[in-house]
């Protein structure tokens, strides 16, 4: 429990459940569910696994108990096959694979960060799934294996790609980067709104000045005009310089 008496959410991975079942005859999926149930923590847990059959099994157990957890995330490894199904993990990088994951009950995909692209994230979201890539490490040993010049650049890049969360081993620095990014975003929005407001004020001001000038000219022109009666008995507007303007004809009904 946290200091505010709110439960801390859990994100638990099942490790090699098929091995435990086949070799040791142990159902770690059910053991995990039963243990969490003792503490009434099932609704506060998100389950993840590199084995789809584990997620399917846990989901079935919880459905039988009418319990809905935070979610089920299918983990995706690089250049490997799934231990339980012998299917390549790369299938989840395709639209068909994402649809398959959604169909068996996954609510998200957790790929190695090197597999993530903006186009793929868009496909994930289009299938009502979330994505949490792993694992972000700030140590030079790990950073040197990435195309990024800094940990900040790495985290920021994935935020901009649109992922829903990341797994990190440097929580403090990651939170600082996220906070700075969000604050910059707020400042950019405020700046954009300020610019829009200034433009609107400028347009209104110019329009007001133009309207005032036009009105003034019309008023001045009207004050120097008078009507004169023509030889045909009709009245014409005449400017101050004495030139008749037949376009300003006024009918004489007298």
From TrEMBL:
Domain GP-PDE residues, every copy: 5-170
Record GO terms (molecular function): phosphoric diester hydrolase activity
Lineage: superkingdom: Eukaryota
Transmembrane segments: 189-215
Xref: Pfam families: GDPD
An example Gene Ontology biological process: lipid metabolic process
Keyword ATP-binding: no
Keyword terms, alphabetized: Membrane, Transmembrane, Transmembrane helix
InterPro entries to which the protein is assigned, alphabetical: GP_PDE_dom, PLC-like_Pdiesterase_TIM-brl
Protein name, entry field: GP-PDE domain-containing protein
Organism: Naegleria lovaniensis
Lineage start: Eukaryota, Discoba, Heterolobosea, Tetramitia, Eutetramitia
